[in-house]
Amino acid sequence: MGIKTNDSTIGFLGLGLIGGSIARAIRSRHPETHIMVYTRRKNPALEEGMREGIIDTLVYEINESFAACDILFLCAPVLTNIEILRTLKPLIGETCIITDVGSVKGTIQKEAIRLGMEKNFIGGHPMAGSEKTGYANSTAELLKGSYYLLSPTAQTSEEHLNRLLSLLACTQSKCVIIDPDTHDDVTAAISHIPHIAAAALVNLVQNNDDEHSYMKTFAAGGFRDITRIASSSPEMWESICLSNKDSICCFLEKYIASLRGIQNDIQNGNKEALHAFFQEAGDYRNSLR
């Protein structure tokens, strides 16, 4: 199927859980839109996406066909998105909007500036997801009610921002403008550190279980709930850690210091400190909306 130039053409470079959910939401609200997807290799889930009418065109290399796109979503791991941005530079025109869905904004925006693509690029981060990955698990409702963070550059035009906001309305998410540095600190604290902590807890149990596997056998609701996110894509989280090193290491130091503090309170039998620790955490957790 060829590219339809008379309708809006939206390109996705990589199409997993988040990108797939955006594509489904676009299709449900804008059926006339042409959706083109780049994938490195044949993928049965994406071929099913074509059969069900979500995807119009699948391509297996980043080439001049993407010049037809009005908006491009970069949906690969963070470091791969940066490589894709470089590849797209000679292919896209001034009116094309490029956005991403990664949970680190500083590194890719710096690269967009270095490449002279400030007018095209608007950083994006839909704050929704699941431990299940891949296009096969995407839904048109996944982003409904969630925050969708946007980080325009200094040269982002009001027209470009409004065009992207208008398109994203189909996801029924709540778009918020935030600068990249603040974004990366926030996501390090509320997303990146929790994923690291969950993975560390799972590895702690695995590495210290006995020959009867009692820890694994008796792991119940609490452990499963707190470690659910450890099932997320290792490729994605490797990329996130390497892309947001400064913020992650800063908050990891704070978290380690907190654990050392509670360890000392337990060893010293400090009942008041232990009570306050759990009370403060419970109060704050209950205040979350």
Could you describe the largest sheet, including whether it forms a barrel? 8 strands, mixed
Q: Percent range for helical residues?
A: 40-55%
Principal-axis shape: globular
Order of helices and strands: EHEHEEHEHEEHEHHHHHH
* Overall radius of gyration: 21 Å
Number of strands: 8
Q: Give the helix tally.
A: 11
| pLDDT < 50 stretches | 1-6
N-to-C CA distance: 46 Å
Which percent range describes the beta-strand content? 5-15%
Strand order of the largest sheet: 3-2-1-4-5-6-7-8
Précis, in short:
This protein has 289 residues and is α/β, with parallel strands linked by helices.
Identify the notable features of this structure and list them briefly.
alpha/beta; 8 strands; 49% helix
Walkthrough of the structure:
Helix 3 (78-88) runs parallel beside helix 4. The chain is α/β, with parallel strands linked by helices and 289 residues long. It is built from eleven helices and eight strands. The protein has an eight-stranded mixed β-sheet, with helices on both faces. Strand 7, helix 5 and strand 8 form a beta-alpha-beta unit.
List strands and helices in order, with pairings:
Layout: E1 9-13, H1 17-29, E2 34-38, H2 44-51, E3 57-59, E4 71-74, H3 78-88, E5 97-100, H4 106-114, E6 121-126, E7 147-152, H5 158-168, E8 174-177, H6 180-208, H7 214-218, H8 221-227, H9 234-243, H10 245-267, H11 271-287
Parallel strand pairs: 1-2, 1-4, 2-3, 4-5, 5-6, 7-8
Antiparallel strand pairs: 6-7
